[in-house]
Amino acid sequence: MPRLLVTPLSSLAEALEIHAPSHLVSLLSPEHMIATPLGYHIEAHLKLGMNDVADPVAGPAPPDLHHVEQLLAFARDWDARAPLMIHCWAGISRSMASAFIILCDRLGPDREIEIARAMRQRAPHAAPNRLLVAHADTAMGRGGRMSAALNAMGPPVAVEEGIPTAFPLEGL
Known about the structure:
This protein is of the alpha/beta class. Helix content is 37%, strand content 15%. The longest helix is centred in the middle third of the chain and has 14 residues. The chain is globular and about 40 Å long.
């Protein structure tokens, strides 16, 4: 079944072994970026160096429109025959935002709230990075619907680290 998998960095090695994804997205601060895991081709590993900030002036290397463009291009090239794995440091913010963006792109417009609510059901800890989603909203021409859908999710359960979570591309 085609699916996205989100995991924190601490669970990445085990998740790669269990799920054997064909593609990997790493969203870490530039100074903490990991090398491409053994057995993966460099072109199947997207490395997006950014800090987890929701305000572009809150710190160095915030998420920007170029990150979203790279993420969308990479995900659109993924054939979905094997899972796509997405990770950040904690599996809560940048990786969940990226999964939300890819799901919105794959499932089409006007499903943003449905996708956000399904994400909340599967991942009570999800707190998608709002700046990354705002850039995607603009890039995808969603007129604010993606950002508004995050409000429809309700508040996350506070945790220090998320757990590996699967999001199917069918039957969300």
